[in-house]
Specification:
Layout lengths: L11 H16 L16 E2 L15 H10 L27 H11 L2 H13 L4 E5 L8 E2 L8 E4 L11 E4 L7 E7 L6 H9 L28 E6 L14 E9 L4 H10 L2 E6 L4 H13 L5 E6 L10 H10 L6 E4 L5 H18 L6 H10 L3 E2 L5 H14 L7 H8 L5 H15 L8 H19 L6 H10 L4 H35 L4 H13 L4 H15 L9 H10 L4 E5 L7 H14 L6 E8 L5 H9 L13 E9 L1 H7 L3 E7 L13 H15 L2 E7 L3 H20 L5 E7 L6 H4 L1 H21 L20 E4 L14 H21 L8 H15 L11 H43 L3 H35 L12 H60 L6 H16 L10 H13 L7 H16 L6 H29 L2 H21 L4 H35 L9 H15 L2 H9 L1 H19 L2 H24 L13 H14 L7 H7 L7 H23 L5 H7 L4 H10 L48 H4 L5 E2 L9 E2 L22 H9 L1 H8 L15 H11 L6
Parallel strand pairs: 1-15, 3-12, 6-8, 6-9, 9-10, 10-11, 14-16, 14-17, 17-18, 18-19
Antiparallel strand pairs: 2-3, 2-7, 4-5, 7-8, 13-15, 15-16, 20-21
Helix pairs in contact: 5-9, 7-8, 11-15, 11-16, 13-14, 16-17, 19-20, 20-28, 21-27, 23-24, 23-28, 24-26, 29-30, 29-31, 30-31, 31-32, 31-36, 31-43, 32-36, 33-35, 37-41, 37-43, 37-44, 37-46, 38-50, 39-40, 40-46, 41-42, 41-44, 48-50
């Protein structure tokens, strides 16, 4: 039964208005009425959108219905579930009728949401509201606009032979129109019978809701007066089709007497009206008669019941009506008691068929709008000013098309996206690949390409905006966003209709040509014609983007276009990312649009990218539309190429849970397109799309139709290449394979073998692709990305439940898609713990680098990305800091060990066993410290790679290199430490021997002085100072005359003996020569110098012979400085003073204190300061305003090159290129000197350390006053020596005080401890002042630096120099972080002339840059190729450790182009060659441009 009884007509309107308000209140829709609910509210990712739980209240029903409808869930009307069983006797229901729900939502939805609902409902095969019942207004509304988006395909029986089909917008299709109505309350179930008729050949589907559906028996409040419409469309199968051609079927809800306007409307537009009735009254007979008279072409058919016994119509009033309307018996369809539902529906079907066979009247929905106007019915498309204005603006654009050929129209009115744009794309690609230089030099050819590119851009600059584009831009520029949206939709609808007509004709021609097996060229021409004849709204957006690209930087006329496009993108309209016709990205346009969008969302734009790839016509767009409720174009009849993006906002409450703010969907054209199969670049085009999309996405969906295994293999091959490339550049997208059209609940278990087969195929393809991409270490798909054969494969049933076009969407499809979507959302949640998603600016950086790399044939060796560079540089900065902390800790440890060794040797010199044990213990402590520091550094690196920021995931592939660098650093430092400790022991033992000799001689002198003193005192004559000096001089001369100098070692023999030992592989002990020989071995290996054994021996002999001279000179200087006789001579005055003071019995306390401070404390304090000064200077340099210069090797290079440019000195460039290591060391040294001089930093550092040690000395003096039992020493002369020795012992852990000198100072000391201590404290203060005064002299900084044990210039050199490897072509140095990286690379390469490369026949220096050559067809030869020519592009087979990517931009290498053209002749003279042939374009490069190129190459902003 259709409806309960309705109220009387006079109170009907009031009743309807009351019912509407009641329903709106019940559903929680009051705030949305009228027409305030927008489509945008459904395009957000919310908590509700990722769950599918039942509605817990009536207020939750609307959003649940809409959510499921947008997902194409044909069971969405079943969301109206009763909380209790409904009983008519109970009165109020706890739920609503499904139709009330739908109509209420239509009343609340705005025009675009209504349109979206209509489209989805038509796909679900629901009847659509044609006439929407009135709300609070007095009239109903014809929903013409809302149906504009519905396009259908069908095959009428007259096209069976040709197997053609018709595609059109449903509002434009002319077809018979048949209506079904009822009079009063009727016992025949009209809606159920209609479902029987429409679904007879297939499973019955509830197109029309009816009383037996869930909640269908709930009373209706706002439905009466609704006219629903559906269509029957044949599939072209006579066994399945009910009717041979299209048919429109309308269904009026409620009694016709309560909806006279709607009934009148139906009588005017219908070919036949089926009236269901049980009885009729006089007034109703008059109503029907009057309508019959005013619309005689209408054909009434009465559907009635007959008496069980008489088989006649039960009610005489019906007989009267038949007579009044003069109806024939054929117009009466009776249901007898014997007729079951099936038999009766057959009668109705036969009647409809009869009507169609005799029908001469067809009508379109657009035509019936005139009838609506005549009857005062509102038409939705004319309800608002915005709609009317938008439609008018669309006509302004559309009218310029006229009858022109689309290709001609685009050429004349959309010219910027035509040949110039395509030519630009080709030139940019050729600029990367350099395939056709002919006989030209590569740099000349490259400059020629750049000149042609600039010429095209200049010509584009003369572009005059065409009339349709001005109209298009003006329409988009309106401040009324509703008007803009209507304009876009009207224009889109119009263009789709126009294109469909044109393309249908071309497809028929192509089909005929294929049948006739016409030649390949003709097919290619038709393919191209098909592409050129496509015209959609995206072409206007594309032209708008091109206009912006052309005028950017020239004029502000179109500067607001990105802002407009960003607003449109935010409103759910897809925007073209990749222009598929030109295979190019308008980078400036896309970047500025997305940056405007970034600003529009408050610069909070954490982005998660989901993209879909697949073979053409496998339902990629439909999949995204069903998953997210979006509207990517499907089945438009056009074959648009490229990739489109669409943004989804994430609800505030879900952002933290998902870890992102936006989801970017990327839909792509179908790969392996049949329309493009004949085009030359189709395979390359598919590869580019796949690489771009996989590279941009965080989650890639590979859509596969199971029935086409051949095409599946083809697409998998393309996709595997893309994933392989992403692995190499640090991008790891998640991947899911979606297998569509898989039926059955056991699909997953039954396809186990297929999944195994798939992974086998993937593994096989990976091996092939890895070989092509030169990644032989990759052998299976799981080496490329995390892939689980069980979790990453999804099996989705077919879209349609039956045979289209009458099949509804398969509910299993919707449910499977929903499950897949929920899995993706959960995956996004889980990924937030791994890394932060990119913000829009970072996404754009990645996109630009990715696209540049795509344009090169050899992708992996072409990829340069600023995000990766920044991520790598950030790690290098941190790693360098960790490395310095490591080194600093060990350097401090070694410095402390040096003091301990010195002290130990002083105390225990004669016990060799104790010494050996002591040294072993120190080495063990150092080893333990090394392991601790290594673990600390390793943990820091591990924690760094756990970070979610800084794009750490992009540099995952470098992780092993850095861990290896830590291990090698530990081994290197351990070797250095052991060598250092061995050297310290050896030197300290030598020094101890020297000190022992000095002590022996001093004791001898002291004995002679004591004897002389006694002798002089024994005389009775008082001697004067002059007399005393004379006798002292005589004694001195006689004593020292027999003292010999230290014995000189045979350094040459020692050095060459060690060389022999090294050659014979035996151990040796001389650390100097040992280090030298290891340095030679290191350089031979790391500089790839090819030598034989004889050459190595000769080289070492040569180097060691020179080193031996230096060692000998150093040894002789040491002997001179430590000469025993000279040492005594230096003490002569002190002994004379002691002699005089003792003779005269003077108080010599002050002099003894002075001697102790000057001879013992001052050298020790200076040594203490200098011992840590090197470390302090390094710290100072790394925290100064110029600290960034040493932060990473890349920035260090940038700093040097910038300074060279500013200095503009040829010899500096020569030194930098040819003697890079010396240049860097000298540069760092001068930097340190300048830094320490300008800020008086060295004074501050020394003063800081001085304050520390002076405090320690003062504290030690106080400690020394007590004996070992902490008792104060007695104040007598004997305890002064004890006090001094206590003091030295206390300071021994920090200072090296020469005890032999201390003994000399204590000789014959007659001072008491208290007076000595008081004088000492004052003397220490004076010492502090004296040293501070010496610190102020900054002129001797170079001398100070040279004398430091830890030289800061060497430590900074280690930090920035790196592995020392040079590019084999241009000699630029490697900038990779750590010292154990697998691959070498540099930010900027230079012309090979700087590496002395030249033409073999002409001796002309080679101006080509190696970044150009390695992507060209050129060849090189050298000793590494054994003199054979070798292709540059395969350089990695000769130099596998080097990566030479292309320049980051055209301007990146301008720096070295400028240097070469400036000093071309001088470099030729330096290299004894002829000057390079410089392209004219290089001569236009200024110093400013050179500096700008440096900034670009090193990603420095505004330097």
């Amino acid at each position: 039964m259709d409806s309960p009884d309705q109220p009387d007509l006079p109170c009907f309107v009031a009743h309807k208005e009351h019912g509407l308000r009641k329903i709106l209140c019940k559903l929680g829709l009051e705030e949305y009425y009228p027409n305030k609910m927008s489509l945008q509210c459904l395009l957000k990712i919310t908590g509700d959108s990722i769950t599918d739980t039942g509605a817990d209240s009536e207020r939750a029903l609307p959003m649940r219905f809409l959510k499921r409808l947008m997902m194409l869930n044909a069971e969405c009307r079943s969301t109206v579930a009763q909380t209790e069983d409904y009983d008519e006797d109970d009165g109020e229901s706890d739920t609503v009728n499904p139709l009330d729900l739908v109509i209420a939502i239509f009343h609340c939805a705005d025009s675009f949401l209504q349109q979206a609902m209509m489209l989805k409902m038509s796909m679900c095969q629901f009847a659509l509201p044609l006439l929407l019942p009135p709300g609070t207004e007095s009239q109903c509304t014809l929903m013409l606009w809302a149906m504009q988006d519905i396009r259908k395909e069908w095959r009428p029986h007259n096209l069976l032979d040709t197997r053609g089909f018709v595609e059109d917008g449903i509002v434009n299709v002319s077809m018979p129109f048949i209506s079904f109505v009822r009079l009063r309350k009727c016992s025949l179930p009209k809606s159920q019978l209609l479902n029987e008729i429409m679904g007879k050949a297939q499973q019955i589907h509830n197109i029309f809701t009816h009383i037996d559906m869930e909640a269908g028996n709930v009373p209706r409040y706002i439905v009466d007066g609704l006219v629903e419409i559906t269509w029957y469309l044949p599939c072209g199968n006579k066994n399945l089709d009910i009717f041979p051609k299209p048919l429109a079927v309308a269904n009026l809800r409620g009694d016709i007497c309560s909806s006279e306007t709607q009934f009148a409307f139906l009588t005017k537009v219908s070919s036949a009206i089926f009236v269901f009735l049980d009885q009729v009254e006089e007034a109703e007979i008059k109503l029907l008669s009057s309508i019959k008279n005013t619309a005689p072409e209408s054909k009434f058919l009465l559907v009635v019941k007959t008496d069980k016994e008489t088989k006649r119509i039960n009610d005489p009033s019906i007989e009267q009506l038949i007579s009044q309307l003069q109806l024939q018996s054929s117009n009466i369809i009776s249901k007898s008691a014997k007729d079951n539902k099936s038999r009766f529906s057959n009668k109705l079907t036969a009647a409809v068929t009869h009507v169609m066979q005799n029908c001469k009247h067809s009508i379109t929905l657009r035509q019936i709008s005139s009838v609506a106007y005549d009857l005062g019915i509102q038409v939705d498309e004319d309800q608002t000013d915005a709609s009317r204005s938008g439609k008018k603006a669309a006509k302004e654009v559309e009218k310029t098309i006229g009858v022109r050929e689309v290709a001609d129209y685009k050429k004349n009115f959309l010219p910027l996206q035509g040949e110039p744009w395509k030519r630009l794309a080709q030139l940019e690609k050729e600029e990367c690949r350099l395939l056709n230089p002919g006989d030209q030099h590569l740099e000349t050819y490259k400059a020629q390409l750049q000149e042609e590119i600039q010429d095209i851009k200049n010509k584009q600059g003369n572009y005059q905006t065409t009339k349709p584009m001005l109209s298009f831009i003006n329409a988009l520029s309106t401040s009324d966003k509703q008007e803009r949206a209507f304009f876009l939709k009207w224009l889109s609808l119009s263009l789709d209709t126009h294109s469909q007509k044109v393309l249908s004709k071309l497809r028929r021609q192509l089909k005929e040509a294929q049948k006739q097996k016409i030649d390949k060229d003709t097919l290619a021409r038709l393919d191209q014609q098909l592409l050129d004849s496509s015209l959609g709204i995206e072409h206007y957006f594309r032209e708008m983007g091109q206009i912006y690209e052309v005028f950017k930087g020239r004029s502000n006329m179109f500067s607001d276009l990105p802002n407009i496009a960003a607003e449109i993108l935010l409103n759910g309209v897809p925007l073209e990312l990749l222009d598929g016709d030109a295979s190019n990205i308008p980078v400036n346009w896309v970047r500025d649009v997305l940056m405007k969008l970034h600003s529009a969302v408050g610069e909070i734009s954490r982005l998660w990218v989901v993209a879909v790839l697949g073979v053409q016509s496998t339902g990629k767009s439909t999949l995204l539309n069903a998953m997210f409720g979006v509207q990517f174009p499907v089945s438009s009849g056009r074959c648009t190429r490229g990739a489109f993006m669409l943004l989804l906002k994430i609800e505030e409450d879900l952002r933290e849970e998902l870890g992102c703010d936006l989801i970017l969907l990327i839909d792509t054209e179908g790969l392996k397109s049949s329309e493009m199969s004949q085009l030359e670049d189709s395979y390359e085009h598919d590869n580019q799309i796949a690489t771009l999309v996989v590279g941009l996405s965080d989650i890639t969906i590979i859509n596969i139709a199971m029935e086409n295994s051949t095409e599946m293999k083809d697409i998998l091959q393309i996709v595997v290449h893309a994933f392989l490339r992403m692995k190499e550049v640090g991008k790891k997208p998640r991947c899911h394979f979606v297998h569509q059209n898989v039926a059955g609940v056991s699909a997953h278990s039954k396809t186990t073998a297929e999944r195994r087969q798939l992974i086998d195929q993937l593994d096989e393809m990976v091996k092939i692709a890895a070989k092509m991409e030169k990644q032989t270490e990759v052998v299976k798909f799981t080496d490329v990305l995390d892939y689980d054969v069980e979790k990453n494969n999804w099996y989705i049933p077919g879209l349609w439940h039956g045979t289209p076009p009458m099949a509804p969407v398969n509910t299993g499809y919707s449910e499977a898609v929903h499950e897949f979507k929920n899995h993706l959302i959960e995956e996004i949640k889980s990924c937030k713990t791994e890394r932060h998603p990119s913000q829009i600016p970072e996404f754009l950086e990645w996109m630009q680098s990715l696209w540049k790399a795509v344009k090169y044939e050899n992708f992996i060796f072409s990829f340069r990305n600023t995000l990766v560079a920044h991520a790598y540089d950030n790690l290098c900065r941190d790693f360098n800091q960790w490395e310095w902390e490591f080194r600093k800790q060990i350097l401090q440890c070694v410095a402390g060990a040096e003091v301990q060794i010195s002290h130990f040797l002083t105390e225990n010199a004669d016990n060799l066993n104790d010494l050996q044990q002591f040294i072993t213990k120190i080495k063990q402590n150092a080893s333990s410290e090394l392991k601790t520091e290594e673990q600390k550094m390793t943990e820091k690196l591990k924690e760094y790679y756990k970070r979610k920021d800084r794009h750490v995931h992009l540099i995952e592939k470098y992780k092993v290199d850095f861990f290896n660098s830590i291990r090698c650093l530990q081994k290197e430092i351990e070797h250095v430490v052991n060598n250092k400790l061995d050297t310290i022991v050896e030197l300290e033992r030598n020094m101890k021997k020297v000190r022992d000799i000095h002590s022996e001689h001093m004791k001898m002198i002291e004995e002679q002085v004591s004897r002389l003193l006694k002798s002089c005192k024994d005389t009775n004559t008082q001697l004067s100072d002059e007399q005393l000096s004379i006798v002292f001089e005589k004694m001195w001369t006689e004593t020292v005359i027999n003292i010999a100098g230290l014995k000189e070692r045979d350094i040459d023999s020692s050095v060459f003996a060690q060389l022999h030992l090294v050659k014979s592989q035996k151990d040796y002990s001389d650390t100097f020569t040992n280090d030298l020989l290891k340095k030679i071995d290191h350089d031979l290996v790391h500089k790839n110098l090819k030598t034989n054994t004889k050459c190595e021996v000769d080289l070492k002999l040569y180097i060691c012979s020179h080193a031996a001279r230096d060692f000998l000179e150093m040894h002789r200087q040491f002997l001179k400085n430590k000469d025993p006789r000279q040492h005594l001579e230096d003490s002569k005055f002190r002994y004379l003073s002691d002699f005089l003071d003792l003779y005269h019995e003077k108080d010599h306390c002050q002099r003894k204190v002075t001697d102790f401070v000057n001879l013992c404390l001052k050298p020790a304090v200076t040594d203490y300061i200098n011992r840590s000064l090197g470390i302090d200077i390094v710290d100072e340099m790394l925290t100064s305003t110029r600290s960034t210069e040493y932060s990473s090797r890349s920035y260090f290079q940038f700093t040097i090159l910038k300074e060279l440019l500013q200095k503009d000195d040829f010899q500096s460039y020569v030194k930098y290129i040819l003697k890079y290591e010396i240049f860097v060391k000298d540069w760092i040294l001068m930097r340190i000197i300048n830094e320490l001089s300008s800020e008086r930093s060295i004074v501050k550092l020394k003063s800081k350390n001085l304050a520390v040690i002076i405090q320690k000395i003062n504290e030690a003096i106080e400690t020394a006053k007590a004996d070992r039992d902490d008792q104060l020493l007695p104040n007598d002369i004997e305890n002064t020596s004890i006090l001094v020795k206590n003091l030295c012992r206390t300071l021994s852990k920090d200072m090296r005080i020469p005890m032999d000198v201390v003994e000399g100072v204590l000789f014959q000391i007659k001072s008491k401890p208290l007076s000595f201590t008081d004088s000492l404290l004052e003397a220490v203060k004076d010492l502090e002042k004296l040293l501070k005064a010496e610190f102020d002299d900054t002129k001797n900084i170079p001398h100070v630096l040279q004398g430091l044990a830890i030289k800061p210039q060497d430590e900074l050199f280690k930090r920035v120099f790196g592995c020392g490897q040079q590019c084999p072509f241009c000699l630029v140095h490697c900038e990779a972080g750590g010292n154990e990286h697998n691959k070498h690379f540099a930010s900027v390469h230079r012309p090979q002339a700087f590496g002395s490369y030249r033409c073999m026949t002409t001796e002309i220096l080679c101006e080509t840059i190696c970044t150009t050559d390695v992507h060209s067809e050129n060849c090189f030869k050298n000793c590494d190729t054994n003199g054979e020519l070798h292709p540059y592009k395969n350089y990695h087979s000769i130099y596998p450790d080097w990566i030479i990517p292309p320049d980051v931009s055209i301007e990146a290498s301008d720096y070295w182009k400028y240097v070469l053209q400036r000093y071309n002749d001088r470099f030729a003279e330096e290299y004894k060659a002829k000057p390079a042939e410089i392209p004219d374009a290089w001569k236009q490069i200024t110093r400013e441009k050179a500096l700008e190129s440096l900034n670009i190459a090193y990603s420095i902003k505004g330097s």
